[in-house]
């Protein structure tokens, strides 16, 4: 395990020269910023599949998250992951920078710092966070205007389980030909199972927001349906199995079954810890509603759905647990004494 602390623009130039030289092997230094629920596992998979000559620099404002990411490498038996001391440190060392951060303002600040540092040196910025479309377009513009490389939005679907199992779906917003850069193909193959090319810049995010609007609502419908079944006195394990094979099947009802004790390896089985936080579901709901409003597209369930997530997020214990916790919370609100 190595810790990396020095920062130098000169070294950045060396790194770039090395990376783009015609001699083989070509080295690539990847950077990963944002080591939370998703970033921990995504960076672990990226690291485990690096070519022997490549390196991965990881950074998070929360220092224990960096220590945890370095700890994840133990199984792979090789030391190619380095703890960066700052965003600038990542920027100075890496040609390809992946971000997995909470909101647009975080991503924009990170990209701006790196662009300011490297000015005309090319960096490929891959943002897999779920952020608002106007900020994504502003980031694309700032990279383009500074002639600082390339930015693409590459949000993911599949949640924490998809990150853990490297089965994420990437939704790519990118102008021009599909993937001509082997480094991009490597990243997406290492961390995911599917790539969807959605078209121009920010269309990956458009797809992500439309999808997560659907997820947020099916999660509420699942909670209602499962509480109804419980109140009917049904065996919940049998009901969950039935739904998973019937027309009520969805990610929220089957893959992320909300009933504790029914399915192994899902957040409901561990006090709704981990997974996709209710606060992030609310964030996506808000972003989807705002985007729809900005283009005059009515979302007929938007207001009621947002109100439910707003209310849930008034409680920190709900806001920070997996969205399936709505099953328990709405069950309690309905006065169902049988809800555990
Ligand atoms: P998280 O809150 O667990 O992790 C975010 C990490 O970013 C934290 O470790 C935080 O310390 C770090 N961070 C914040 N600001 C930073 C900065 N300026 N520089 C460096 N690090 C910084 O969030 P998450 O669940 O990993 O989600 C990350 C993004 O992915 C969000 O945009 C989310 O909407 C999206 N997403 C999450 C899921 C999921 O299931 N959790 C699924 C799909 C997409």
Automatic annotation (TrEMBL):
Catalytic residues, chain numbering: 208
Top EC group: oxidoreductase
SUPFAM superfamilies, A to Z: 6-phosphogluconate dehydrogenase C-terminal domain-like, NAD(P)-binding Rossmann-fold domains
Source organism of the structure: Babjeviella inositovora NRRL Y-12698
GO molecular function: 3-hydroxyisobutyrate dehydrogenase activity; NAD binding; NADP binding
Pathway: Amino-acid degradation; L-valine degradation
Family: Belongs to the HIBADH-related family. 3-hydroxyisobutyrate dehydrogenase subfamily.
Entry EC number(s): 1.1.1.31
Identification of the protein by name: 3-hydroxyisobutyrate dehydrogenase
Catalytic activity, reaction form: 3-hydroxy-2-methylpropanoate + NAD(+) = 2-methyl-3-oxopropanoate + NADH + H(+)
PROSITE patterns: 3_HYDROXYISOBUT_DH (PS00895)
Single biological process term from Gene Ontology: L-valine catabolic process
